Amino acid sequence: MSSYVEENYLKAIYKLTERNKDGAYTNDIAYELNVKPGTVTEAIKKLGEKGLINYEKYKAVTLTKAGKMIAVKTIRKHRLWEVFLVEKLGFKWDEIHPMAEELEHINFEELTERLDNFLGHPEFDPHGDPIPNKDGVFSNHKSVKLTSIALNTPVVMTGIENHTTSFLQHLDKLGLKLGVQVAVKEIVDFDKSVLVSVNGKKGFYLSHDIAHNILCK
Amino acid sequence: MSSYVEENYLKAIYKLTERNKDGAYTNDIAYELNVKPGTVTEAIKKLGEKGLINYEKYKAVTLTKAGKMIAVKTIRKHRLWEVFLVEKLGFKWDEIHPMAEELEHINFEELTERLDNFLGHPEFDPHGDPIPNKDGVFSNHKSVKLTSIALNTPVVMTGIENHTTSFLQHLDKLGLKLGVQVAVKEIVDFDKSVLVSVNGKKGFYLSHDIAHNILCK
DNA sequence: TATAATATTTAGGTTTACCTAAATGTATTT
DNA sequence: AAATACATTTAGGTAAACCTAAATATTATA
Fold first, then answer.
1. Which pLDDT band, with edges at 50, 70 and 90, does B140 fall under?
2. Residue nearest to nucleotide D7 (CA to C1')
3. How many CB pairs under 8 A join A and B?
4. Is residue B163 predicted with pLDDT exceeding 90?
5. What confidence score (pLDDT) does residue B17 get?
6. Closest CA of chain A from B128, distance in Å
7. Cβ–Cβ < 8 Å for A13, A71
8. Which long-range contacts (CB under 8 A, 24 or more apart) does A96-99 make?
9. From start to end of B88-179, where are the E strands?
10. Which residues of A touch B98 (CB under 8 A)?
11. Residue B120 φ/ψ, nearest 5 degrees
């Protein structure tokens, strides 16, 4: 199995396992990777034989220590390249994902470490996601959803939980980027939408759905 | 055929055609890419059908305009990444080839152009090879081999014609890097080795083989 | 608990990019 | 020009990563 494909499976399983502690299901992995379930069964059997995941027929799979390390290192590379693309090449946060998706599979440890150094050892990527260090350790975030912030309590926007282009572009349009100060001024009883102020100035209403995907500290 | 494989075939054919105007031979392509001749026959047939090369049974192949453009763009990406690796990440010129060999296959035009811009539109890579512009046009070099420089005529080292690690490391050891001033002080009749001065200081003898792989202007 | 719904696996197939080895074509030499 | 050497192609095969569709497990529901 090529490292390209392998890393994508492990990354998908990592992501799904974060959401569902039991592990990752065949169908969900298939959806995540845009392949058919039968293809996934074949792949996870091989990853099991390689000792990268714990595979038992008809059960959700989990990563072994070795598999988790590969997944996390792939995430590390992805996020470091995203920082490079934004900080050094001037791309916008909604443009970088497809490029990082390719760059993350370039495996030269020295390249990754020198890139990290060149970028000044960033702790977070342009979307506010933490970048694991070379041993696979994440610095802790401790941010919470905007929907759980008390009224009139100023907080700083630190991340997002949805990475779709349309969501990112909409936030741009609203001036909602990482680092801005936000406060919830009102929660609309009818639809749970929230009135927010941005950097002190009177702001606008955000749907519950949007507010729910914004992380603050 | 994946763009990864395709680009490698076209690059190999480009390189071989530079050496031999007739075109590239099956066996040579196979040697260049570390595959067997039968594999090459299969591949060049497909590239012919795609209109990227001119293929006729038992004849040397040449690139079509379209094929040449892909080859040159791959070379452009390769050399730009090499500049990045040396100028920004601090790698040495003998370490970068394998990394650039992977990075060159990442195909996002905007990425390439922004990288070029970030690097200040370099004209040459760390080995002194010219970097084609985005239309595939090379700036002209006009450098000549050190073996053809007249006695006591100071010139500047601008490139090399051998990219092996051992050659590059040997040049490093001798202090022969791009930009140094070199002059041929003596040509030894016995073995055609040359005595060179480097940056004005009395230098050392270089074998004809080494001198023949050094380019100057 | 039997049945229906859903998830997973299996079986059989395709394409790509490689292989080996035999067959055929081209070039060189005597 | 025949024989030999060498290059190229063809034929048949493999492994990886995908597919569809049928078969089998598991889970949920009546």
1. confident
2. B27
3. 35
4. yes
5. 97
6. 22
7. yes
8. A96/A126, A97/A163, A98/B108, A99/B106, A99/B108, A99/B111
9. 144-145, 155-160
10. 108
11. 80, 30
* Contacts (Cβ under 8 Å, ≥6 apart) of B173: none
Give A102-152 pLDDT, tens digit per residue.
999 999 999 999 999 999 999 999 999 999 999 999 988 789 999 999 999
Q: Which of residues 26-65 of B touch strand C (CB under 7 A)?
A: 34-39, 42-43, 46, 57-58
Task: Report ipTM for this prediction.
Answer: 0.93
Which residue's CA is nearest to the C1' of nucleotide D21?
A: A38
Rg (CA), chain B: 19
Residue A155: is its pLDDT beyond 90?
Answer: yes
Q: Give Dmax over CA atoms of chain A in angstroms.
A: 58
Helices (H), chain B: 3-19, 26-33, 37-49, 65-83, 97-103, 109-118, 165-174, 208-212
At B142, the pLDDT band (50, 70, 90 cuts) reads: confident
- The two structure tokens encoding residue B64: 């079509």
Which H or E run contains B37? helix B37-49
Measured distance CA(B111)–CA(A191) in Å, rounded:
42
Structure tokens at A132: 């694991």
- The Cβ of residue B209 has, within 10 Å, a number of other Cβ atoms equal to 13
DSSP B188: -
CATH numbers and ranges of domains, chain B: 3-63 (1.10.10.10), 144-216 (2.30.30.90)
